[in-house]
Design goal:
Length: about 110
């Protein structure tokens, strides 16, 4: 969960940098960004399939939507969606931590 959260933060930072580019630079950077988001969505979906937590499914949907928004230069909306995904993953982490505490593992 922490890894996914870290990768979402990286996605937000990269998105912020996309806004500074133009022309061929932007095309190349966007292509790399799309590969990164696709891999990130895959990791989120894997976590969902293993844990079955709805927050991961929601986070994956937000990442996919952010990808679409970034493609159309809607960076502010894409950033909101990435932030939303971070919140969902963080919520999942809090739940997992509580379960571990309740079971006496922490």
């Amino acid at each position: 969960m922490e890894r996914i959260k870290s990768e979402l933060i990286i996605a937000a930072k990269l998105l912020d940098r996309l806004n500074e580019l133009g022309g061929d630079e932007l095309k190349g950077a966007y292509k790399l960004y799309s590969f990164f988001l696709e891999a990130l969505e895959g990791e989120i979906n894997l976590a969902y399939n293993i844990l079955g937590m709805k927050d991961f499914k929601t986070a994956g949907t937000s990442v996919r939507e952010a990808f679409d928004k970034a493609r159309f230069n809607e960076y502010e909306e894409a950033m909101r969606l990435i932030s939303e995904a971070i919140s969902h993953v963080a919520s999942s982490g809090q739940w997992a931590m509580q379960v571990l505490k309740d079971k006496g593992f922490l």
